[in-house]
Amino acid sequence: QHPLLGSRSCCARRYLSGARPAAAAAAAQRPQHRRAPPGVVAAAADAAVTASEVELAAAASGAAPAPPPAAAKQSEAQKAAKDALLTWISGTKRGAAAPKQLRGQIEEAQVAVEALSPAELDYSLLEGKWLLVYTTAADVVPIVALDQELPLGLPAPVTVGNVYQRFSSVQQGSVQNIIEFTVPFLLQPGQGATFTVDASYEVRSGRRIALVFEEANLGQVRIGAGLEALLAPALLPRGYLNQQLLLALRELKLVFPFRSAQQVAQGLGVAAPYLLTYLDEDMLIGRASGTAGTFIFRRVSE
C-alpha cells in the first residue's frame, strides 16, 4: 500500500465510523412533524367548507353577517342603559318637575349611557329631527315649566308643546332649535305658534361641535276661535280692517338677529362649544359648556 494513501484511507474510515453515531443522535433530537389523524383532517376540512357555504349563502341572500359576540353584548348593554335612563326621565315634564334627588339619579343613569359611547362619534347620525325629553339647562327649564298649572287650579297662561333640535348634514352645518307653544283661548291648541332659533355648527373634534347663533324667529301663528271671535265676531259684518288684522296675525313673522349685518358679512360670531356625549340611531345627549346644563333627545320622524 502506498504509505500516504493507506494513511488517508484509514483516517477516512475512522472519521466515518465516529460520525455515524453523532448523526444518529442528532437525528433523534430533531422535532418530529407528525401528521394529524385522518379524522381530524376531515373534520377541519368539513368545518371550513361549512363556513364557506354559510358565508356564500349569506352573501347570496343579501343578509348581513351576524355581529361578533362582543358587539352584541355592547348593543344589549346600550339598550338596557338607555331604557333605564328613559324610565328615570318619564314623568319629569322634561326636567321641570324633577326634584333634586331625582336629578341626581337621572345624572347617574345618564353617565352610564355616556360611558358606552365611542371616543369618536359617527356624525352621519346627527342629521335629523330630535325631540327634547329632558334638560337641566337654566335657560330652558323655565320655558318648559310654563305650562304647569297655577295655584288654585288655574290654567297655565302659556302651554309649551314639543321642543326640537333639527340638524342638517355636517357639510351644510345648520341647526334649528324649535319651540312650539300656544296661548289658551287666543291660539289654536297644541301648536298655536312656533319660536325658532337658527344657528350654524361645525365639528371641532370627535365629540365636540361649535354653535354660532344667527337669528330667532316667531311665526306660524294659528289663531284660535276665541281670538277670531274677538277680532271679527260672526254676528257682525267683517270689514276691511278686521280682515287685514286677521291676515296680519296669520302671516306674522318676527325676526330677532343675533349678529349685525357687518358681522354676518365678515363671518364673525361667538361660537358656543357643545359637547355631544352620546349619539346613536335614536338617542342624542349633549352637554353645554360650563354649567349650562345637559340635554337628552330622542329621534323623531320629520
Give a description of the structure.
It is a single chain. The longest helix is centred in the first third of the chain and has 27 residues. 38% of the residues lie in helices and 25% in strands. It has an eight-stranded antiparallel β-barrel. It contains eight helices and nine strands. A hairpin with a 6-residue loop joins strand 2 and strand 3. Helix 3 runs antiparallel to helix 4.
Output the strand order for the largest sheet.
1-2-3-4-5-7-8-9
The main sheet comes to: 8 strands, antiparallel, barrel
Mean pLDDT across all amino acids: 78
Tell me the β content.
Answer: 15-25%
**Rough outline:** globular
Q: Helical content, roughly?
A: 25-40%
Low-confidence stretches: 1-58
N-to-C order of helices and strands? HHHHEHEEEEHHEHEEE
Rg for CA atoms: 37 Å
For the record, give the distance between the C-alpha atoms at the N and C termini, rounded to a whole number: 111 Å
Write the layout of secondary structure elements.
Elements: H1 3-29, H2 38-61, H3 69-89, H4 100-114, E1 128-135, H5 141-144, E2 159-167, E3 174-182, E4 193-203, E5 208-219, H6 225-231, H7 240-250, E6 254-257, H8 261-266, E7 272-279, E8 283-288, E9 294-300
Antiparallel strand pairs: 1-2, 1-9, 2-3, 3-4, 4-5, 5-6, 5-7, 7-8, 8-9
Helix pairs in contact: 3-4
Quick structural overview:
With 302 residues, this protein is α+β, with helices and mostly antiparallel strands.
List keywords for this structure.
single chain, 302 residues, alpha+beta, 8-stranded antiparallel beta barrel, globular
